[in-house]
Amino acid sequence: MNNVGFYIFALVAVIIAVLILKHVVTCLMRSVVVVVLLVILAVAYYFFVGQYDPEVHDAVQGAWDKYNNH
Prior knowledge:
Shape: rod-shaped
Distance between the termini: 73 Å
Structural class: mainly alpha
Largest sheet: none
Strand content: under 5%
């Protein structure tokens, strides 16, 4: 294989690698976003449904009222 043929082969290989990597990274990023959302939902469930603490509720409500009045 001469130099031009090698460079064409290398260019095609890089283009194919970028396309495959773009697809894999997109899929991986979607998976990461889904996992983060599931963790947020689990934490919200734990704090708001699984464990009710009136003091925490009052503190959050007071902070929310201060935010709204500001």
